[in-house]
Amino acid sequence: MALAKKMIWYVLTIIFLIFGSFLFYFAYSDLKFKKDILTLVETGKYSKEITFTIASIFIVVAFIFIIDIFVHRQEKSEYVVVSNTGNISISQNALRSNTRSSVLKFSSVEMTKSKVTIKNDELTADVKADVYSDYNLNDLGKDIQFEIENGLRIMTGIDKIKVNLTLNREQKAHARDVK
Predict the structure, then answer these.
(1) 129: which strand partners?
(2) I want to staple 51 with a disulfide (CB 3.0 to 4.6 A). Which of 27, 33, 35, 109 is the partner?
(3) How far apart are CA 18 and CA 8, in angstroms?
(4) What is the mean pLDDT of residues 17-37?
(5) Is residue 128 a contact partner of residue 111, using CB atoms and an 8 Å limit?
């Protein structure tokens, strides 16, 4: 669904750019068919300025579309839960936030990087975290994986969840206090 929306956005941008460019060309060229058309619709001496203004509006709108496309291009995947009452879209940012919340339940751990992807109803979370304690990394890692998996399962309803966790032992706590 998001792909169809992006395709429509791209097509509209191209149409607006082409139409605006044609109007600019039409406003500033001395073609015979232009003179014939303008004699039918010309109501004053300002037809060139009006055409230029309309062309400018089309070009500005096309550039707004282009800016919007570039701003939202990072939102690659959005998970949509379909139900009888409507659709629920879960953004990439919400998935990362949920992962961060699961990691922050452990007072001696700080998440440094996360990436959550959903393909074919299978969720994969790649998480990197710093540990500021002497806990056993194997046991701590399993607990963190369980929390992340549980949080994402509750949020999305997906049963196939894979959590790739990389723990790095750090000596000093720099971003938040260790309790």
Answers:
(1) 111, 167
(2) 27
(3) 15
(4) 70
(5) yes
